[in-house]
Amino acid sequence: MKTMALLDQEYVLTHEQIQFYDSNRYIKLKHVFDPETISLFNGIITKKVMELSKEKQPMEQRDTYGKAFMQLFNLWQEDELIKTLVFSKRLAQIASALMQVEGVRLYHDQALFKEAGGGITPWHADQYYWPLASDKTITAWIPLQKTPLSMGPLEFSAGSHKIMDGRELSISDESEQIIQNRLKVTDFKHVISPFDVGEISFHSGWVFHRAGANTTRNMRKVMTIIYMDKYMKLKQPTNDGQQNDWETWCPGTKIGRIIDSPLNPVLF
Q1: Can you give the residue range of the structural domain that contains 198?
Q2: Does the keyword NADP apply (predicted)?
Q3: How far apart are CA 126 and CA 129, in angstroms?
Q4: Residues lower than pLDDT 70 in the chain
Q5: Which of 13, 85, 188, 199 has the highest local Cβ count within 10 Å?
Q6: Would 256 be classed as within a structural domain?
Q7: Max alpha carbon distance in the chain (Å)?
């Protein structure tokens, strides 16, 4: 099948793209997948998310985090076709090239579905939650449909991985306000633009990012895959989120050792 073959075909990055990522710690790449591939996984992932999702409170009764998105983790363990996307050599090769590492492991995958009328995803840095010893981490953010500004695409503060302030904040109203105020007094460019079908972004664990509300009547459907350097070591957790991630996504790994649990295979 053409779609299955495309998942493992090389995506050639230019030197300029690799340097752009190195400076800004995010990049958006067009035509990573064709519309047929996106349509296929839109149907498969949506079906699995709806099957596994628990009934949620009405939107007006949820807190900011609850309004931001429905999320499900490690769908690669739930469906063999979803596993082919998560284990895609094409995506893992891009992740490895952008981070300029020898290879990458899976940290975990995560479906992020922002419901119609769903609220903002506050400013945050993902690696707050990760007990990982270095910054060699990267997330592929894969929209499963064309994503206009009205749907709440991912926004970035380009180069903000250099800021230490705000790294201690989980996703919350507080992180939105404090990080936003901090970014206002910097020269880092706020990047917000729609995503075409087949366009995918990659961002590092410490770059600050957010997403707007979904003001449309349709679900904003996104699949994400988090990669780490294949030699990544586990560090001592410094908050409850990192402790939970150690137990959930790196089971059996010892502090100071390479994270090579069965949930963290080398993908490239």
Answers
A1: 10-249
A2: no
A3: 6
A4: 1-3, 55, 57-69
A5: 85
A6: no
A7: 51
The two three-digit tokens of residue 144, written as one number = 């499963």
- Collect all residues with Cβ–Cβ distance below 8 Å to 165 and sequence separation of at least 6: 178, 179, 182
- How far apart CA 227 and CA 109 sit, in angstroms, is 9
- The Cα–Cα gap between 29 and 138 comes to 14
Report the distance separating Cα 89 and Cα 98, nearest Å. Answer: 14
Q: What is the CATH number of the domain that holds 173?
A: 2.60.120.620
The count of structural domains within the chain is: 1
Query: Rounded CA gap, 75 and 48, in Å?
Result: 8
* pTM assigned to the model: 0.94
Render pLDDT for 200-229 as a digit per residue (tens, 0 to 9): 999 999 999 999 999 999 999 999 999 999
